[in-house]
Amino acid sequence: MNALLFLGLGLLASLRATTSLQPQIPSVASFTGSNVPGFLLSTSTQIIVDSDFQDSGSPSLITYAQTFRSDLLFLAGLASIPEVRIGSLEDSDASSIIFLTLGATNHTYFSGVATEEGYDFVINSRSYIIKGSGAIGVWWGTRTLLQQLALSPTSDGTIAAGSGSDTPGWEVRGFMLDAARHWFEPSFLADLCIYASFFKLQTFHIHASDNIWDQNFISGPDWRKLYSAFRFQPAAGSPIAGLIQLRNETWSKDDFTALQTTCSHHGVTIVPEVDTPGHSLAISKWKPELAIPNAPDNLNLSHPDTIPTIKAIWDEILPWFTSAEVSIGADEYDPSLANDYISFVNEMSEYISQRGKSIRIWGTNEPSTTASINTSVTVQHWDFPGDSIPVQLMNRGYRVINSEQQFLYLDGKTSDEGQFPLELVQSLMWSGAPGGGGWAPNIFSPDDSSNNTSPDNPLLRGSIMALWNDWGNNATTPLEIYYQLSRSLAVFAEKVWAGSGVRDTALSQEQFNSIYPTLNVAAPGQNLNRAVPSQPNNIIFQYPTVSEPRISAFDSVGPPYTLTFTIKPSNVTEINVPLSDGTSILVPHDGGVIFAGNDSKLHVQSLSFEDPTTQIRYPLSYTLPTDTFTTVEMHATRTYTYAVIEGSVYWWMTDLDIWGEYMKPANMSFAAPSHFIRGDDFFGELHNVSLVLGS
């Protein structure tokens, strides 16, 4: 076993016969312990998929089993376990078996609606049997097994014997990421899917088109200069090809298909969003005639080409998506155009329905006395009471998803005068509801119970928390986004699975706080923490002199860390660059790259950190002299990075444009650029290089 995974709680080794499951995230609905030896994973443990159900589900049970085996190897630290086998429990003579099958019954959400997400499990010394009501139920059962393995109180990782049953409270349990105002590579989004799946979240809502808001640009002649993006890359020759201005910041169909497959193989469905008719500057830049005058981020729905253009966009990309639902956004549109808005939503609902999918919209006030949105449209509530009153919507027959901003909104690192927190507020999540019972998807107001509903309301579909990126690419690095999400996703996962005050097995805040650090480290299939194996004296590398480029074993190292080096840059300001015809030209030289990794680069010029994802540089207010040696000692945590140089402290910062009204400085955090030491384009001297864990 990987010893790191069993030290998080500081628990002592005990006898193999344990009688209760460890508290986990999310909590298990019920478990009855048995006072006999528990299940012990070993290199001979055989995963068997019931041959009667191997192809059941989409993804299939066998597909989930293959992913589970990879996760098991990742988490347990075993050199190997046998390949997944198809068969039955009875025909196996293995001494240690994990058996995956279907046939569990009577699993329902709190609403009483039957679900395939439930599972039963039976554990003894020879076998761990997971029986799902569907293949996805078995998948969630494997997450329970993995968490129990990580949290086992015994030194060998024994899991308590007994039997249990578990079902989520709601069908929609997910998170939204604004990927329109901040560019993210598909690999990062895939890792977020995998991480969220460990905590049994099953929806990844990707906000894929939008623009930065700046009134000075929006209402002025330079509105085309404002950052906007549409992230789906049309095929060559597509009629919507003109929509793309930032081709290097788009996902091809192959990119998105691979991302979607990774997520689905971990039980997570991607729900894509193309936001119209508001937040549509990317479309207006392509077709200015469709914009409302002096409000180009809003499309003129009365223009004869507007709705056909929006339909053409969906015609191009809708076949990409495997989800049964898509979001058309439809928020923050001019309320004086309510009838046009309602007609648009209903027309798009019908249009997309004819193509086999249904739609969601953000809750938006549409003050019309003559028209209403069709109740087949799911409303994702976000602003109470300004834009929608969810209990009233449900009373009128609408299905609702809770994304209430008072509880569930984050914004990339910082926001307008602290409007949104860095992570979900723990006091609100655990006790911030009428009566002090804590938040759950049926809670929309922290102080007025009349605006909340019951957990079993059949029109309450569940909840999606949201992380926006109002301040754009330069506000955060992708890893900073993960730092905001990591703990928030876990506490949110408990609440959308178990609710508050519904099950007596639900976690307390104290239990959550005690186990989350261990489970965060244990989450398999990704390494968003950029953790590295234990090193002697926490030294990642140490070199007295680096006279030529070196490659270390570590692509990137997450904070906290200390990176120290002594440097004397060259005074070269121009270099020869060879051309294909055999000649060369002189080009300016900025000093080169000192260190580089998957998540960051450190340049000589202004000691700038670069985020390779966005290619944005963040300079330090310091210039390295070229005529002497300078020692730089860098320190990083998840919230800041700074350098100590000749006794003075310098911080890596960014400037955020808050609504075009004022600028706001913010700290930047960077993973250590640990893979390449001394770039090919660095010509100076580099000595006393060391990277040590801890700040």
Largest sheet: 8 strands, parallel, barrel
Kindly report the oligomeric state of this protein.
single chain
Unreliable parts: 1-17
Tell me, what is the CATH class of the largest domain? Alpha Beta
Overview of the structural elements:
The strands form 8 sheets. The protein has an 8-stranded parallel beta barrel. A 7-stranded mixed sheet has the order 1-7-5-6-4-2-3, with helices on one face. The model is unreliable at 1-17 (pLDDT under 50). The protein contains 13 helices and 36 strands. β2 (46-50), α1 and β3 form a beta-alpha-beta unit. It is 21% helix and 25% strand. It has 3 domains: 3-166, Chitobiase/beta-hexosaminidase domain 2-like (Chitobiase, domain 2, 2-Layer Sandwich), CATH 3.30.379; 172-501, Alpha-Beta Barrel (TIM Barrel); 536-693, Jelly Rolls. α3 packs parallel to α12. With 695 residues, it is α/β, with parallel strands linked by helices. GO terms for molecular function: beta-N-acetylhexosaminidase activity.
